[in-house]
Design brief:
The chain has about 450 residues and is of the alpha/beta class. The protein contains 12 helices and 15 strands. The protein has 3 domains: about 170 residues, Rossmann fold (3-Layer(aba) Sandwich), CATH 3.40.50; about 170 residues, Rossmann fold (3-Layer(aba) Sandwich); about 70 residues, K homology (KH) domain (GMP Synthetase, Chain A, domain 3), CATH 3.30.300.20. A 6-stranded mixed beta sheet has the order 2-3-1-4-5-6, with helices on both faces. A 6-stranded mixed beta sheet has the order 8-9-7-10-11-12, sandwiched between helices. The relative contact order is 0.09. Guanosine-5'-triphosphate binds next to helix 6.
């Protein structure tokens, strides 16, 4: 959906102090486990948007982190700021409170703020797991809002009633707005703290996600549409990836699983690394995974403002030395912080997406094989035909007579030749060897 279309949809913000069950409610409303839910407070940080359909209407919902009147210069303060942004743009507020613990001082202070904004606010009393009904709701009217609704987000009680009531104060739409197609999905992936979120913010030219020098800042996936020269793609910011052994918390683990999902779903991956450090072991492991999945890939060394020209040339050489196939992948150096060179990888992503999507004709492929046979045929076995079976990613069946006799290193050679011959870059290839069974004439 384009940003203008998106902003035309009514937006409902889920807000409240930490740990009252906002993300559980969000997941319940959107009917999937998108947001990470954890028992400890302070899990959600960035704003998390999703569009849902209620009675032929499209509504956007935004989940937020817990509001807690935090001191400045803390992560909690940055979360508070994100909540304020969500409130500022929302058409309606769901003010979530905890029915099991009752009203707290933070709830009261937060209510004071919400009363001043001129938009409908509904008090949503969560954690009423045993359905004891309206009796328990009485005290929550003291917060000063007309509508108080009881729910159990965990058990799904009261959700339909909440949805029906919520729609009453939203502007009426006359048609169902379908999501606008985007060309492809570009995920920004890398180790913690390399500047993935800074890069996303720089592209969007706004502070969409929280950036901090603490590794592990981003947790939930953040998706945003982005238009470049009239073409629309979806950008995904992800939680920093590092080896499972180094993980310290369940939250980190759940963030990790979401990043892995993003990797699987992505068409194009921007693998961001810190240009002052080069590709460390964790980045190399991520790279391996991306190549295994045959995703379209662009390497981006960020924090270029702190690095030198010489170092950059060295990285490229080191990479290609370690894995010759990487010479077919583009590498750029950017500074998210200074917004330098940030559009180069995007421009390139459109080109490599074309390769990722390319259909090769049987004739083209067999001409390529003929060329190969003349130039350097394998020492054992015989190449017969090459047929494309898939794109996104590119897969081929290579029919060979006597496939066991073809030396192993020939496949690497063949892939390299393929990339050069067809002038393809930034994508992996999967050559599936098939024994050609027909008798030779
Ligand atoms: N000098 C410099 N600093 C940068 C650049 N990009 C990001 N930083 C800083 O690096 C730190 C981490 O930035 P983030 O954008 O939060 O990094 P991230 O990769 O999203 O981190 P996680 O979400 O924790 O994985 C912050 O202190 C940023 O200001 C850059 O291009 N140059
Ligand atoms: Mg981040």
């Amino acid at each position: 959906m384009t940003n203008s279309l998106m902003s035309a949809l009514p937006l409902v913000a889920i807000v409240g102090r930490p740990n009252v069950g906002k993300s559980t409610l969000f997941n319940r409303l959107i009917r999937r486990r998108k947001a990470i839910v954890q028992r400890e407070s302070g899990t959600t940080r960035d704003r998390n948007y999703e569009t849902i359909q209620v009675d032929n209407q499209s509504i956007r919902i935004v989940d937020t982190g817990g509001f807690q009147f935090a001191k400045s210069n803390t992560m909690e303060f940055m979360v508070d700021q994100e909540v304020e942004k969500a409130i500022a743009e929302a058409d309606e507020i769901l003010f979530v409170v905890d029915g099991a613990s009752g009203i707290t001082h933070t709830d009261e202070r937060f209510a004071d703020i919400l009363r001043k904004i001129n938009r409908p606010v509904r008090v949503v009393v969560n954690k009423l797991d045993d359905k004891r009904g309206p009796l328990q709701l009485g005290e929550f009217y003291h917060l000063g809002f007309d509508t108080v609704l009881g729910i159990s987000a965990a058990h799904g009680h009261g959700i339909d009633e909440l949805l029906t009531d919520m729609c009453k104060s939203l502007p009426e739409q006359h048609e169902l707005i379908e999501e606008d197609p985007y060309l492809f999905n570009l995920s920004i992936i890398g180790e913690p703290n390399v500047g993935k979120s800074t890069y996303l913010n720089a592209l969007l030219e706004k502070d969409r996600v929280i950036v901090s020098e603490i590794p592990g800042t981003t947790r939930d996936l953040v998706e945003e549409s982005f238009e470049y020269e009239g073409k629309k793609i979806r950008l995904v910011d992800t939680a920093g990836l590092r080896s499972e052994k180094k993980m310290k918390s369940a939250t980190e683990f759940f963030s990790f699983t979401r990043t892995k999902e993003a990797l699987k779903k992505a068409d194009v991956i921007v693998l961001l690394f810190d240009a002052t450090l080069g590709l460390k072991r964790d980045s190399k492991n991520i790279l391996k995974k991306i190549l295994e999945e045959r995703k379209a890939l662009i390497l981006v060394g960020n924090k270029w403002d702190l690095s030198s020209q010489r170092e950059m040339a060295r990285y490229k050489n080191d990479l290609v030395e370690a894995n010759g196939f990487l010479k077919h992948f583009p590498i750029f150096f950017t500074s998210g912080l200074k917004a330098k060179n940030i559009l180069q990888p995007i421009e390139e992503s459109f080109k490599i997406f074309e390769y990722y999507n390319q259909l090769f004709s049987t004739k083209e492929l067999n001409d390529f094989l003929e060329m190969l046979k003349k130039k350097k045929p394998p020492q054992g076995g015989k190449l017969k035909y090459l047929v494309q079976t898939h794109r996104r990613p590119l897969r081929f069946n290579l029919f060979v007579k006597g496939k066991q006799r073809v030396p192993r290193d020939y496949w690497g050679f063949l892939e390299n030749q393929f990339m050069s011959h067809f002038k393809v870059r930034g994508v992996g290839l999967k050559m599936n060897l098939v024994e050609e069974k027909t008798k030779e004439k």
